[in-house]
Amino acid sequence: MTTNKHNWPDKDGFFGEYGGKFVPETLMHALEELEKTYNNFKDKPEFKEQFYKDLSEFVGRPSPLYFAERLTNHYRTGSIWLKREDLNHTGAHKINNTIGQILLAKYMGKERIIAETGAGQHGVATATVAARLGLECHIYMGAEDVQRQSLNVYRMKLLGAQVHSVESGSATLKDALNEALRDWVTNVDNTYYIIGSVTGPHPYPMIVRDFNSVVGEEVVAQSKDLFNDMPNAIVACVGGGSNAMGIFYPFIDIKETRLIGVEAGGEGVETGEHAAPLNDGTPGVLHGALSYLMQNDSGQVKATKSVSAGLDYPGVGPEHSLLKDSGRAEYVAVTDKAALKAFHEVSELEGIIPALETAHAFAYLDVLMKDFDSSANIIVNVSGRGDKDINTVAEIDGIKF
Amino acid sequence: MNRLTKKLTNLKKENKKALVAYLVAGDPDIETTVSLIKLLVDSGADIIEIGVPFTDPIAEGPIIQKAHDRALANDVSLKTIYDIVNKFRDFDNETPLVLMGYLNTFLSHKKLIEENQNNAIDSILVVDIPGELNLADYGITNETINTISLISPTTKKDRIQSIAKNSSGFIYYVTLRGVTGASNLDVKEINTNIDEIKKHASVPVLAGFGIKSEEDAKLLADCSDGVIIGSSIVQMIEDDSQTKEFDRIGAYITQIKQAIS
Hints:
Strand content of chain A: 15-25%
Low-confidence stretches of chain B: none
Radius of gyration of chain B: 17 Å
Mean pLDDT of chain A: 96
Largest sheet of chain B: 9 strands, parallel
Strand content of chain B: 5-15%
Oligomer: heterodimer
Shape of chain B: globular
Number of helices of chain B: 11
Low-confidence stretches of chain A: none
């Protein structure tokens, strides 16, 4: 857990001009209560001890920083290293955050857990920690995502969670968030809402970042051990932006490391059919925070398109908006097509089937590696494994089981 | 004095309770919204609250969500809403009109609100900003438009005080933990909380969310300065949108009005 590094958010929950707390009045007290609890516990030795113990014994941390030899040879320059979040229990970085937040829920005495999920990874990670503590768990998931991530839906059910298919709006991640917020407004007294990304109202973007920054902390130490230097660049996919924020955060003050977030370019940013608000959005308010947003002239949120359910979201965490404006991080986009190509390439070259979300980060290496000579060290955050995506990819490739 | 303040002052003088009726602009279509507003006023509504449709209305239950979707399918924006209210103002320059919506749509139309053509709108209620803040805090200034703040059952005393101080027009007391149209009213809690708010507020306190029957309306009017009815009306609009015969809505409003008189 990295805390107190750079000074965002401010006391009102803003990262520069982004972030804040834009929620119905009924939730204001719950957010204050959460912020108080978090601030009270985050630096306490017993809290940190429990968090790191769970990460070590239940999740299997630290995850390796692994030299990708064949991928490196493929680009014939630099060294490519993979931060193996795909090896975590439940198969993605999402578990880091849920391990931390369930501790907060326990301290607050909440007996009911809710969460939204896109690709299902956060839903599985939440159902997992709820099962571990024997807490009632409800997961909201867009009906379209329930279809394309059916494997994860079944995993959540096996873990004892109730999965609610959300039919409203575009029936994807944003609508799942709407529905989870409505549940929270209704059951706020006994319910803890585990938001799965660095999005939502303050204090969530801060809490989710802090819990996920264990990834970046490990990378700092592993880089010293493995190549005795800081990396030249870190590449991570960005939907809401939690895996990227987690690995970027400890590097914000390490200026020699380029931080590159890769958004879902869908059919191509120029077509408008994508999920890349940092590349093609304007500041707006959605789900409790002001941040870059895909919206029309009337302030209505646009439908998104991406082959990856986990990136199919019109907004992005407010801290990414700040890092974009300040220029500390670069944000690019790759198309569905490029991501699918990378999905196959990495599977064949490295024996690692990446999540479709992660495949976006890999796809950008085609562009990025041209910037570096052979002495460079480039890290890709392998945010999750691709088992959940095999049905989607098989269907695209015209394969029937 | 704007129309809303004037109306609420007069009602208080006459010892009457306010009836606020809600509908979503552009549901089922733009023309019909104008005639529905007229119908609501003719049937006894004192104040009209116009829902500004938004793609992601997180405080709304399913009935009003669907109405937002129908309105968006008709391309209704804040700009269209000014067309609607201006048409209504040709007939009625007395009834207060309140816009209720989500911050993002207002931010996208700052100019329209600052101009407030013909002073047609009297008040704005933004569902997703903290009650201590108002539109001016987001760079939207118009001194003739006042901000209505929400207070809910989960609002703590210290915040009740600062919200009460900030609110102009009236305070909208959210009667339940939940979304619009839910049905878990706790009249005892509502009574206690409204009493607490009234200690600090200089403006009237109206109650809304989850009020459906004449009995609900009467119970809540007894402990507040008036009630807000939304989902029931919106449901009837949906039910009768094919025939566009809305007599049922008129009768319903008249009954509620009688129940709180």
